[in-house]
Each structure stands twice: as structure tokens, then as C-alpha cells.
Amino acid sequence: MGCASSDSASTSGARVAQVTVRDFHISAPKHLKAGTVRLSIHNKGPDVHELILIRANGPLPLRADGTTVDEDAVEPATAGALEPEQPNSVSFLTVHLTPGHYEFICNMAGHYLGGMRSELIVE
Predict the structure, then answer these.
(1) Can you give the residue range of the structural domain that contains 113?
(2) CA 13, 55, 28, 36: dihedral to nearest 10 degrees?
(3) Which of 38, 54, 61, 79 is 20 to 30 A from 28 via CA?
(4) Is the CA virtual torsion 27, 22, 66, 54 positive or negative?
């Protein structure tokens, strides 16, 4: 598991990775080296989106509503989370990643099931 800050923490020496979110799509790196990474997240969608990075191998558990990921169940594996951001905004999230498989998701109602996720492999 990694740890995150919403980004006033020390970012000196952190590599920067670009992430773009828009309706039902996340464009993000597929591979990163382990260590501290500063994610620059641009919401290009017309709607509010959030971004959660979860260390995962396989499907994520859903809540009883069947449309959103159970954030309580995945919380121990959550490397970082960015609260919902407005359209056309840029936000930053600093995470410390250890080797493994991760998944970027937007967990707004129906977005994850609509395909708003992207796999990341940290080496």
C-alpha cells in the first residue's frame, strides 16, 4: 500500500505523472516506477469527478447499491484519493507507490461500472 497527501506535503524530488479524467474515461500511465509520484489530474469532463488509486489484483468489491465500489472495504489498499473536482480543473495528489497492481477509479454513481477506471502496474 502507498500513502497520499492532497498535496501541500513535500513534493520535492517527486516525479510527475499526468492523469486526465472525463466522462467514463481515465487516461493515466499504465506503468510507473515505485517511489513518490505527484499526480497532476485534469478534469476535462463536463461533470464532477473524483479519483481514487487502489492497490488491487482483480475486481473491486461493490457496495449493496451495485453501482459503486465499497470504499470501506478497499480503504486499507487505497494509495490515494482526490475528492470530487469541478470540470476544467487541475488538482494534484502526491502518492508513495510500492511495486504491485493498482487501479485508478472514479467512484461517482455508475462511473466505475461505466468504465471509468484504468490499470496501473508499479515496478
Answers:
(1) 3-122
(2) 0
(3) 61
(4) positive
Look-up: residue for cell 485534469?
42
| Predicted TM-score (pTM) of this structure | 0.88
Among candidates 103, 15, 113, 13, which has minimal Cα distance to 53? 103
Residue 98 belongs to domain with CATH number: 2.60.40.420
Give the count of domains, the chain: 1
Q: In sequence order, which residues have a C-beta less than 8 Å from that of residue 12 and are 6 or more positions away?
A: none
Beta-bridged to residue 76, according to DSSP, are: none
The separation between CA 109 and the C-alpha centre of its own chain, rounded to angstroms, equals 16
CA 116 to chain centre: 10
Mean pLDDT, each 10-residue run in order, the chain (123 residues): 44 85 95 98 93 94 94 97 94 97 95 95 98
Task: Identify the DSSP state of 120.
Answer: E
